[in-house]
Amino acid sequence: MRTAIIFIVFFLALTGKVLSQGNQGTPGGYSPVNMTQAQSNPEYHQALQTALGALDYAKVMVKDTAKVINAWSQVVSGMNYKFLLSGTQYCTDDAIQVYATVYCDTSSNCSMSCTEIQT
Question: pTM of the entire structure?
Answer without folding.
Answer: 0.75
